[in-house]
Write a structure and sequence with these properties.
heterodimer, B: mainly alpha
Chain lengths: ~500, ~130
């Protein structure tokens, strides 16, 4: 086994790992050493082909199809230099004060979190797209929501030089999306941080971790030769995402008992709905996600967002098969799409654990409240589609494949909980949160408000696994703001950790 | 999967995506590559479960129609699959979801199928918006 040694090791290079790397990179000028260990590859520019199956294989764990234990839900999370920031759509919202109040984490203040969020909104060039760059799929949603009196807002997004490829979820082929691969990691590396790709961390021991470097057939080769490594560090920051961070800590048999480790996992369970227009609209050209409607978050526990997906993803989200399914698929250029997301509660039994190989297993039960929200969200989405002029709509909880515009006043009887059967519908999630939640003490949480693992002074967690409950919005800016705090705490504690 | 299982999958696949029957040799090769690649990444027990599900689907219709799936007419095949879509047991619904997902991947995952469904992506989509 090869040996390496650093002052700080950061596991993961996504929204959290990339942020911590950049924030601690100035340590390199002070003669300290910082490394990022990233499981995924750094793709070359020409490898962003926009081909769905190919890019899903290269950029996602399990090709974007990680299943919960009961197979009721698919979880999508990235594996790449830049983590999930390579594959998200870049919508950037700061955590609302009401949500932070519900989190109730002692020592986590709104003003502090907001200040740090604003920093990343600026750093990532977050702004509203100009009108000329909005496609029909988005404009129709806006107009329909306004017609229905639904509150609708434009998503600020983190892009620079966006050409509207609409391929955000397969990696931006124009390098326009300002993920950590484009912003924080290059800065960190220029300051002397070593980013080691194709490096899977197996376990964490006392101030060290064991990892294996193995180069896949794509992307740049790792900076380190292939093989197994023992990497010693004064401080270790785990930023491997809400599935892999708890899994890694569970594999590592920490010297403290943390009953909350892996628990209180939330996901914003989501569904894709499709409406069909009688003429082609611009939908796969342009940024896919410009608007959201949060009218029903407080009352019914769901959000509506614009979206546009690719052929295979679209096909698998339509609940059916055969001639009628093919008929709708043949009208991809006439489809309007809406993503509905439920705000799910943080339940102890929704959790990440590990199997006998140490690989993550996710147990997640969709509560009655969440199922009710998902059914209600489909009715709201159908109303939006019909108000936008769709002549028919496909809803996963529809009593039949198509609902027509003439039936718009009967949605309560045509979109039902009975028709919404687990295992039949494609419920998915890309907002994975919790598992290493922040809180007051080790009996109910894994870390303090600064991401330090209770009872393990050299070990920190920095990613969405810190969230004690759902963010109720896209989580990325909040992840970066929390990671900023973690970096500050690591820097403050490093002098004593180096002498320990 | 062995050759017999592949042929069975393509035959069943044609009931899920009718256009599968129109795949030429190269299209079938791409279908196998996509589906095979996806299956290879799954744990062994999941691969075995899928093969088992294909076997169950092949023989299940004998209970109702007295014949295997590949000996049914189009309406009967459709009826069997519709029953699976809403099957009383979640495991069966899951199994059919997995089967549909693989068939959709094998067909719609091929860029060659995109023109026929009106999907024409561009790295410069804004050019089309501004035209």
């Amino acid at each position: 086994m090869r040996e390496r040694s650093f002052d700080v090791v950061i596991i993961g290079s996504g929204a959290a790992g990339g942020t911590v790397a950049k924030e601690l990179s100035s340590l390199c000028r002070e003669g300290l050493s910082v490394a990022v260990l990233e499981w995924g590859a750094k793709l070359r520019e020409q490898e962003y082909t926009g081909r769905e199956a190919e890019m899903a294989d290269k950029l996602y764990f399990d090709s974007g199809g990680f299943l919960t234990r009961d197979h009721a839900m698919t979880l999508a999370f990235g594996r790449a230099y830049g983590g999930s920031t390579v594959v998200y759509t870049g919508t950037s919202l700061a955590l609302p004060e009401t949500v932070l109040a519900r989190w109730g984490v002692p020592g986590l203040e709104f003003a502090d979190l907001r200040r740090r969020s604003e920093k990343y909104l600026a750093e990532n060039n977050v702004h509203l797209l100009p009108d000329a760059d909005l496609n029909d799929n988005n404009r129709l949603f806006l107009a329909a929501c306004q017609r229905l009196g639904y509150r609708v807002e434009q998503f600020p997004i983190n892009v620079k030089g966006c050409h509207g490829a609409g391929l955000c979820n397969l990696g931006c082929p124009n390098a326009a999306k300002q993920g950590t691969n484009c912003v924080q990691l290059p800065v960190a590396e220029s300051q002397g941080v070593e980013v080691i790709t194709n490096c899977r961390v197996e376990t964490i021991g006392e101030r060290e971790c064991v990892a294996t470097v193995a180069n896949p057939s794509f992307g740049e080769p790792s900076r380190w030769p292939e093989g197994r490594y023992r990497i010693r560090a004064k401080a270790v920051v785990v930023a491997a995402g809400a599935v892999n961070s708890p899994a890694l800590l569970l594999r590592s048999q920490l010297p403290v008992r943390l009953p909350a480790l892996g628990r209180y996992f939330t996901t914003h369970p989501a569904l894709i709905l499709v409406g069909e227009h009688d003429r082609p609209i611009t939908n796969f050209y342009g940024h896919p996600k410009s608007y959201y409607c949060d009218q029903f978050v407080e009352s019914h526990g769901f959000l509506l967002e614009t979206c546009m997906y690719f052929p295979f993803t679209t096909a698998k989200n339509l609940i059916g098969f055969g001639a009628v399914h093919s008929e709708l698929m043949r009208s991809m250029d006439r489809m309007q799409m809406i993503l509905v997301l439920a705000v799910d509660p943080a339940l102890a039994d929704n959790r990440v654990s590990i199997d006998r190989n140490g690989d993550p297993v996710v147990d997640y039960t969709l509560s009655d409240g969440v199922l009710d929200s998902l059914v209600a969200s489909q009715k709201a989405a159908a109303r939006v589609f019909f108000a936008a002029g769709c002549h028919r709509v496909h809803a996963p909880a529809g009593v039949r494949f198509f609902l027509t515009a003439s039936e718009r006043d009967r949605l309560d009887e045509l979109i039902t909980r009975d028709a919404f059967k687990l295992g039949k519908v494609s419920i998915s999630s890309a907002h994975l949160m919790g598992g290493c939640r922040m809180g007051g003490g080790p009996s109910t949480s894994v870390t303090d408000a600064w991401g330090q693992v209770h009872g393990v002074p050299w070990l920190f967690v920095a990613d969405a696994s810190l969230f004690p409950a759902s963010a109720e919005i896209n989580p990325y800016v909040t992840i970066m703001a929390l990671a900023d705090r973690v970096a500050e705490r690591v820097r403050a504690r490093l002098p004593e950790l180096r002498t320990a | 999967m062995n050759e017999r299982q592949w042929q069975r999958l393509l035959h069943i696949g044609a009931s899920i995506v009718p256009e599968v029957t129109g795949l030429d040799a190269e299209g079938q090769r791409r279908f196998r590559e996509l589906v095979g690649g996806a299956l290879a990444q799954r744990p062994r027990n999941m691969q075995r479960q899928f093969a088992l599900f294909l076997g169950v689907l092949q023989w299940l219709p004998a209970l109702r129609f007295g014949r295997r799936f590949d000996r049914l007419d189009a309406a009967q095949r459709d009826a069997v699959l519709r029953w699976l879509l809403d099957a009383p047991a979640m495991r069966l619904r899951n199994g059919f979801w997995g089967l549909r997902t693989l068939v959709f991947m094998g067909f719609y995952g091929q860029p060659q199928s995109w023109p026929a469904i009106g999907y024409r992506p561009s790295f410069d989509g804004n050019q089309h918006l501004h035209a």
